Amino acid sequence: MQTPTYLASALRLPTNGLDYAILGIYFAVVLGIGFAARRSVKTSLDFFLSGRSLPAWITGLAFISANLAATEILGMAANSAQYGAYTVHWYWIGAIPAMVFLGLVMMPFYYGSKVRSVPEFLLLRFDKSAHLLSSILFAFAAILVAGVNLYALALVVEALLGWPQWVAIVVAGFFVLAYITIGGLSSAIYNEVLQFFVILAALIPITVLSLKKVGGWDGLTDSLAKSHGDDFVTAWGGTGIGSANPLGANWLTIVLGLGFVLSFGYWTTNFAEVQRALSAKNLSAAKRTPLIAAFPKIFIVFLVMIPGLAAAVLVPKIGTSASDLQYNDAIPYLMQELLPNGVLGIAVTGLLAAFMAGMAANISSFNTVFTTDIWAKYVAKDREDSYYVRFGRLITAIGVLASMGTAFLASSFSNIMSYLQTLFSFFNVPMFVVFIIGMFWKRASMKSGFWGLLAGTTAAMVNYFVIYKQGIIDIPTDQGANFVSAIAGFVAGAVVMVAVSLFTEPKPVAELQGLVYGTRSPGMAEPPSAGDDAWYRKPALLGWGAVVLAAACYIPFSF
């Protein structure tokens, strides 16, 4: 493990009454949205999936906001300060294609099967063992990721505002607990829409002022090329197999490990994201949800990458023993150096909003999976609907408390994005291989889901903790190790699924309708509605447009 990282105490911000007033107004609005959403919560479907009633633009913005947590803001800025322009891979190859695939290919299966969660789909496609294992793994992962958000929030608030860590954890946890418990998923989603704009209002001034501080884009790239080498400001420079580069990965592990396995594993099976699409009012809106989110995702990379690159110029020794600033300090450092009061209050509010959005997404998905997939299926069966709403609120409180307990696991990573990618390689990638084989191969047997998931998770963990950490194979960086772990988990899960399927009975074809590609259930049929001829209502056009735009963005960074 790496040395624990703490945000430098010298980063204390000169906040005043105006900044705290902005912060107070934001918290009041958050709770107000929770109480307003409470009126719509009458059934468990309302509490866990907003009654499947939300329009695509709402669910699309919530989809991207749930991902744009402060762990991503701090983590991707840290990535940029440490690895340079390679950060664009996490967006243009590590997000957009998978988001398009989710919208065009997988959402018809999820939404058409009327499942309430991602693990429930495995119950329909495979059996109870695969369902229970996936539910437990997802619930555990959700608490770990929520803990990352809480830990990062505590460090930021302590360094910037001087609040003790436990105060920051309790305050943020209370507000997330309050508005999810009161208003359910609708409250979380509407707050995420608000948080999306607050986060942008925080990041845009930091990006513009930091770019101006280092002499514009030309001044930024010239400085970094001199201090870190030409490869630091390109996307693909030095990624040939056997070549050395800051990221510690070659083009093959970037394309397969990040662009395919990690990316598709996260975006297509992470219920914290998929849950937003499942709350859409119809199948068309559900399909458009990740596609609408893909367009802002293309450009958000500039708002997190440029500050990280600027920090690498302004603090040349950042992240090394020669500086008291770590990579995770990039955004807080720029806030301290560049922002006046008022704007500073908006930036602090944006960071807190981002932490709360990320935590809320994981807690709301955790309470859904634990209640509907574990408690209702295996512990307290066939109770009245109101019982599950009450239990959902109780397990939300337990989830928040548990995430406080897991928060400090993130302290062993100097780059919190590395920690998140490690978790995704353990939990999301094995689930993806089970989904993708189950959706496209009718012969995949009921038992293969459980054993594929178990084998994939085990292989990813063995690669990381044994092969990488024990130095059996030399992998230069944590991120490079994550890419290899993801590939190992995918291959192991696929091989085991195929082997088990060849020796066990497949599920009857009649039970696979609407669950495997090429089959259709009555629930998946949806008559066209008025206005479906509009270009923005055509999922295929939206999806391919996002892919082409993301590919075009690579051109300036490829040379």
TrEMBL record:
> How is this protein situated with respect to the membrane?
Multi-pass membrane protein
Superkingdom assignment: Bacteria
InterPro entries attached to this UniProt entry: Na/Glc_symporter_sf, Na/solute_symporter
Identify the keywords attached in UniProt to this record, alphabetized.
Answer: Membrane, Transmembrane, Transmembrane helix
Q: Using the record, list the residue span of the signal peptide; answer none if the entry has no such feature.
A: none
Main subcellular location of this protein, as a coarse class: membrane
Report the subcellular localization. Answer: Membrane
Q: Name one Pfam family in it.
A: SSF
Please give the start and end residues of each transmembrane region.
Answer: 20-37, 57-78, 90-111, 132-157, 163-181, 193-211, 249-269, 290-315, 343-370, 391-413, 419-441, 448-468, 480-503, 540-557
UniProt lists the family membership as follows:
Belongs to the sodium:solute symporter (SSF) (TC 2.A.21) family.
PANTHER family the record matches = SODIUM_GLUCOSE COTRANSPORTER 4, SOLUTE CARRIER FAMILY 5
Name of this protein: Sodium:solute symporter family protein
